[in-house]
Amino acid sequence: MIAHPMQNMQNIVSMRDFDLETIGELITRAEAFKAGAQVHLSKPVYAANLFFENSTRTHTSFEMAERKLGMTVVNFDPQHSSVAKGETLHDTLLTLDAIGINLAVMRHSQDGYYRNLISSPDLDLGIINAGDGAGEHPSQCLLDLMTIKETFGHFAGLRVLICGDISHSRVARSNAEVLGKLGATVLFAGPEEWYDHSFDQFGQLVKIDDVLDTVDVCMMLRVQHERHASESGFSKAAYREQYGLTVTRAARLKASTIIMHPGPINRDVELDGALVATKRCKFALQMRNGVFMRMAMIERVLKARHLGGLN
Ligand code: CP
User: Fold this and answer.
1) What pLDDT digit, counting tens, does each position of 153-180 carry?
2) Closest atom of ligand 1 relative to the 58 alpha carbon
3) Neighbouring C-alpha atoms within 13 Å toward the C-beta of 265
4) pLDDT tens, 33-89?
5) Which regions of the chain carry the CATH code 3.40.50.1370?
6) pTM higher than 0.90 for the full model?
7) What CATH architecture does domain 138-280 belong to?
8) Which of 24, 47, 93, 163 lies at 20 to 30 Å from 203 by C-alpha?
9) Residue with the nearest Cα to atom 5 of ligand 1?
10) Which fold does the domain 15-133+289-304 belong to in CATH?
11) Relative to the CA of 60, which ligand 1 atom is closest?
12) Cα dihedral 106, 112, 115, 117 in deg (nearest 10)
């Protein structure tokens, strides 16, 4: 058997960059961390988490992963940083790099903010994208894949419905990018005005009520109020009625179907609050798995950069 050369991931910014072997390796490694595997860094490694958009899960989970790996986390507060005085992202990273930060985990509202940064010859720190505008959210995608694998043991043949505010969702884009390649069938549902035809290449736009009883995974997306130019006509009750996963709709799901949500949840809008605590809803499991998947991602970047004595 020919050994597969490990994909060199100096930065992790988009699911487009992943081959399927690497996705499998990261899931296996995250499962090992979940089972208690540990890493010993023989040299210090410093991380900074730069969140220019709000976050609870991703920020806390990356910091937990960094600490579990034995890294030193250096506090960075965007609101009190010199970005507020007009310093560019590039110069911010140049500063952190010069100070000795090895890894920057970043979330920013600008789609693809990382493109010039990862190719910049004067920056020598790793970048992990923790969400770029309506672009991608690779760590959420990978923890979602880990959760689906943990539940079903495979991806091939699964029907995955991604439902809601598709065009504004980096979670939808990252998951759509890889689920089909892994052998799943992807379906989209939600308001047509919040659908973007660039998703057509990944799956079909359907009505939630037409497919509910046929899907294996029901991935509900948050209505991203902060990304909508105008919401004058938006009604929570009307959205729930037309597109939400309600208790009534959930009664039509197969017994084996799981409900997923990246969080934060608008309870009783895209997902009924009463469904969140049910066994089929994997919301808490997704968040638990997120720490282990982020450990696997960070370890991969450290290895590619020969940091901490890892190879
Ligand atoms: N899923 C997710 O990205 O959640 P946070 O915005 O809380 O990080």
Assistant:
1) 999 999 999 999 999 899 999 999 999 9
2) 8
3) 25
4) 999 999 999 999 999 999 999 999 999 999 999 999 999 999 999 999 999 999 999
5) 15-133+289-304, 138-280
6) yes
7) 3-Layer(aba) Sandwich (3.40)
8) 24
9) 55
10) Rossmann fold (3.40.50)
11) 8
12) -30
